[in-house]
Here is the input.
Amino acid sequence: MSVDIVGYIPLLSIVFSSMGISFVFKDFIADLVASMVIKRNKDIKVGNRIKISAGGYITKGDIMGVGSLRTTVMEVGDGERLPSVRTGRLIKVPNYMLISNPVMIYGDTIIDEVVSYVPRPFPDSDLLVESMKEAIVSSGHGLIEVGLYQSKDDKLVVHGVFEVKTSEMADERSRILKAFLTRTKQMYTLGQNPAKVQEDKITVPLQNIEQPPG
Here is the structure.
């Protein structure tokens, strides 16, 4: 039923044009029809996080309300600088844009990753893997997997994949990384001769967290 309504929008536009109805009024009708589609499908609803790709621009945010003409979205940062952090800006999105452009709808949870780059000399690899697993689990997230890779600049990459609630994913990578670094340092120190650790100055620095592995 909803698909049939969408199909009638171009036809309605032609009819309105032939009747001399303004372009603005055609958009008004298109938004009204789109709101009917949105409410019938129930894919786009209050509380959902969406990402819209339209006209070369990306709009990402949490739906705060769905009106007859506009959907109100609380903007959420996208990319590396403000990942999943609400910016405080409200965006009024014409409803027609939500059914005429690609829209990514986030679920209740999302898969994310955390990366740490470890320089030589490398600590025990099993210790690194277990430390990352413990950091993820102790942070209250679902563990997917942890892997080790060799980067091009000869660093050991510890790559953790985890499941997190979409509403809580704002800074979870930093929290997990901090727990990983703390746990790794403590376990390594306890398992080695403190004098030897001091002599070798073995550390796992936080660096290049946002770079992809390898």
